[in-house]
Amino acid sequence: MPLLASSATSGGVAKMIAQEEFTVNFNKPVVFQIGHLGETYQEWVHQPILSKESPRFFESGFLEFFTRTVWWAVPTIWLPVAFWCISMSMRMGHTLPQIALMVGFGMFVWTFLEYCFHRFLFHFETKSYWGNTMHYLLHGCHHKHPMDGLRLVIPPAEAALLAIMFWYLYKFLFTPSTSPALFGGGLIGYVIYDMIHYYVHHGQPTKQVPKSLKKYHLNHHFRIQNMGFGITWAFWDRVLGTFPQTKAA
Predict the structure, then answer these.
(1) How far apart are CA 20 and CA 110, in angstroms?
(2) DSSP secondary structure, 80-143, as one string
(3) Amino acid 52: pLDDT
(4) N or C: at which end does the chain have fewer Cβ atoms within 10 angstroms?
(5) 69: which DSSP letter?
(6) 231 burial level (CB within 10 Å; 0-12, 13-18, 19+)
(7) C-alpha to C-alpha distance for 58 and 80, rounded to whole angstroms
C-alpha cells in the first residue's frame, strides 16, 4: 500500500510539473494547445499581450475565417434586422410612442443580458482541457490579446445563434405584436454594446463620458478582472455588487 500511495503521489506531482512547464507556442495554431495549461490557465490568460494581432487559432483556413470580424460588420448586419423587427410591430398597429417604449425597454433588457453574459459566461473559471479551450474561444483570447481589433466584436455566426435563441424566447414571453419591437430594441442595444466595446479599446476619446467608459473597461482588463463587467453602463455592477471600489487606471 505505501508503494502504491507513493506511486500515486509521484504521478500527481509529475502531472503538476508538466502543467507548470507547458508553454503555448504562438507560432502554431493555439486553440488546441490552450487546454494543456490546466490549472495555470486562469493566471496565464490574464497576463495580456499588447500586440494588435492575436495568433492563428486553427490549422483549417475555413475555421480560422470565422474567428475574425471587422467592427463595421456588426451594424451592417444587425441594424437592418433590428429595424425590420421594429417595423413588424408598427405594421401590427402600435403607435410611435408605444414602439419607442418597447424599443427602449428592449435596450434596457440588453444591458442586463450584457452584464450576465460577461460575468457568468465569459468569466467562468476552468482548469480542464475542454473548459480552458472553450473559455479561450469565448472570451479568454480577448483578455490575452485585448488590442486585437479583429477578435473583439462578436462574430456574426455566433451572434446569429444567440439571436435565434432570443427571438424564440421573446416570442414565448411576449405577445405576437410586441415581441418583434422588444427584440429589435435588444438588437440595437447589442450593436451599441459592440461599438462601444470596440471604441474603448481602439478609440482616443476626448469627452468625459467616453473617457470614463474607456478607463472603466481598461480597469477590468488590467487591474481587477473579476469586477466591472458592464461595458455600456456600470448600473448593473453597482446593483449587483461588482462595481470596483478602486480608482480606474
Answers:
(1) 40
(2) HHHHHHHHHHHHTT--HHHHHHHHHHHHHHHHHHHHHIIIIITT----SHHHHHHHIIIIIHHH
(3) 84
(4) N
(5) -
(6) buried
(7) 32
156 Rama sector, left if φ>0, alpha if ψ -120 to 50, beta otherwise: alpha
Cα-Cα-Cα-Cα dihedral sign, residues 47, 214, 197, 171: positive
pLDDT single digits (tens) 144-163: 999 999 999 999 999 999 99
Does the CA dihedral 20-24-148-193 come out positive or negative?
negative
**DSSP annotation string for 168-235:** HHHHHHS-TTTHHHHHHHHHHHHHHHHHHHHHHHH----SHHHHHHHHHHHHHHHT-TTS---SS-SH
Percentage above 70 pLDDT, the chain: 90
Q: How far is CA 16 from CA 9, 34, 36, 80, in A?
A: 11, 16, 11, 51
Per-residue b/e over 186-209, b at no fewer than 16 CB within 10 Å? bbbbbbbbbbbbbbbbeeeeeeee
Extract the C-alpha cell encoding 216.
472603466
- Checking if the pLDDT of 7 tops 50, the result is no
